[in-house]
Write a structure and sequence with these properties.
By secondary structure, this protein is mainly α. The chain has a single domain, classed as YutG-like. Helices cover 67% and strands 0% of the residues. The protein is built from 9 helices and no strands. 36% of the residues are buried.
C-alpha cells in the first residue's frame, strides 16, 4: 500500500528516459546531438554503422537507472551553481569549472564505465578532444551566467557509452550471423 502524499522515487525505464530527455533539452542538449558524437567516434572503427543505431544506443543508455541518477544530479548541480546556491569556495570552483576539479570527470568515468574500459577510453577521447555538443557546452560554460561543469562530462560519457555499445551490438550481430541466429531488436542487448 502506498502513501498518496509520498514523493515518487522509483521510475520505469521509459519514465527515466523521458525525464532525462526533458532535462537535457532544457539544458540545450538533444538526444540526436549526443548520438552524432557516438556516430563520429565509432564510424572511425566500424564500417556500415548508421546514425539510427547510435541514436537507439543513446536512448537505451538514458533509460538506465544509474545514468538517470547521474544526469539528474549533474544538471541540478550546474543549475544551482548558475544561481550561486552553493556556499564557500565550492561555488566558485564549480562555476569556473576549475581544471583541477575532477569530480565532474569522475562522474563521466562512472557512466562510461558501464561499458568497461573501452567506454572509459572513449570518454577520455571525447573529454580531451571535445567533439560536437560537448565542445559547444564547454564553450558556453565559459560565458557569464552559464555553468556546464558537470553537463559537458555527462553528455560526453553518454556518447562514449553509446559508441561502445554500438561496437558491441555490431560485433554481436556478426557473431550471431556466423552461427545463423537473427536478433529481433537492438534492445535485446
Amino acid at each position: 500500500m502506498s502513501d498518496k502524499n509520498a514523493k515518487k522515487l522509483l521510475f520505469t525505464r521509459q519514465e527515466m528516459f523521458e525525464l532525462n530527455k526533458k532535462i537535457l533539452i532544457k539544458r540545450g542538449v538533444s538526444i540526436e546531438s549526443i548520438a552524432e558524437i557516438s556516430y563520429q567516434q565509432q564510424s572511425k572503427y566500424t564500417t556500415d554503422i548508421s546514425r539510427q543505431i547510435c541514436l537507439e544506443s543513446v536512448e537505451k543508455i538514458l533509460s538506465l537507472r544509474d545514468v538517470f541518477h547521474h544526469v539528474q544530479l549533474a544538471c541540478e548541480i550546474d543549475r544551482l551553481a548558475e544561481q550561486g546556491k552553493f556556499e564557500g569556495p565550492i561555488q566558485d570552483i564549480i562555476y569556473a569549472d576549475l581544471g583541477l576539479f575532477g569530480i565532474d570527470e569522475t562522474m563521466g568515468l562512472d557512466v562510461s564505465g558501464l561499458y568497461g574500459t573501452i567506454g572509459q577510453t572513449n570518454f577520455g577521447d571525447i573529454d580531451v578532444n571535445k567533439h560536437g555538443i560537448v565542445k559547444r557546452l564547454n564553450e558556453a560554460g565559459k560565458e557569464e551566467g552559464i555553468c556546464h561543469t558537470f553537463l559537458d562530462d555527462i553528455v560526453g560519457a553518454i556518447a562514449a557509452a553509446a559508441s561502445t555499445r554500438v561496437a558491441q551490438v555490431m560485433n554481436e550481430e556478426i557473431a550471431n550471423e556466423e552461427i545463423g541466429v537473427t536478433r529481433l531488436s537492438i534492445f535485446d542487448l
